[in-house]
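Schema walk-through. Below, the input block comes first and the output block second. Nothing else is stored per chain. Lengths vary across the set, and this one has 383 residues.
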Amino acid sequence: MKVAILTDGFYPFVTGGMQRHSYFLIKYLARKKVHLRVYFCIQNDLDFQSTIQKIFSEEELQYIEFVEIPFNFKSLFPGFYLIESYLYSKRIYEHLIKDITAFDFIYSKGFTAWYLLKHKQNDFPKIGVKLHGYEMYQYAPDLRTKLQHYLLRIPAHFVTKNADVVFSYGGKITDILMYQLGVQKAKIVELPTGIEKELIQKEETEYHQPIQFVFVGRYEKRKGIENIHQAIKKLLEEKKTFQFHFIGEIPQNLKIENEQVIYHGLITEYTKISEILRSCDVLLCPSYSEGMPNVIVEGMANGLTVIASDVGAVSLLVNDKTGYLLENNDVENLYIVMNRVISEKKEVLQSKKKAALEHIQNFVWEKISDRLLEEIRKLSLPR
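--- output ---
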């Protein structure tokens, strides 16, 4: 079987939600001896050949052909990203069209199949589209984000409506596809994100005293971090006993100066992040919009229970057994839930941590890649 994978990863698949998802799909399909041609672009001046030798095995690389396509990252004017995304999709098309009928299936991330779908012909293989989380159809926390959403809906609508199959994380992402974009259910394949089995800790960690909260991510309003800061301040004013850890870049002038709040800064090495996570109890992810956050998957794999907004496909991971699912992420609601967790009986919190660790076993890449391969085989039956 031969599959073309069109990625919108700007790095060699190892950083960020979309890029990591691409990396693991490529890795595990190659392990199943599927021949892959991967179209990609790189933002930084990286030694790509050296990098892939580190992140793929020799056996995996026997089944992967990489084709680098240029992408202009210099934002020259508003809307430039969309124009360049279209041109990037055209450059991919111009290379792929030379032997497109040799492929059994085309798996496209983001807007990479935009030009291909515009020029789609009957003898083309089936084309599947995966947009990260359809955030452009979710709540926008400010006017600027709302305007960006409206622009992004143009290509999002086109590629979604014209693809042969649309991959969804599930949950509210599927609802967006069906009820906002009018995609037929038969055309939707639910495929969650996941984690490597080896990264899931073997045993649950004990509840810490005082309770340890953690947030992982950059300072971005969409992630609800401003609400977290306000909720923490309310808890500190009431002299509540807890510690809160932030992993990620936070502007110095926005940091809370209190010994109960610890800022670890930007950490990119997973083992170091994992060490901090395993010293904590509760991960917070009160986002306004999401796909299926890797940070929740990784938090649960490290034995944490989770407080998270009910957005995107988060409800597939977080429920009453594994954590606390928020109907809204405003400051007051976040404060109430955090206060409840601080006062929670040890046995309740420990049971949630245990349930989270057990539940994440259902989201390992071995199972997810099996599911994808099964769907590809169905879709690539003789046309």
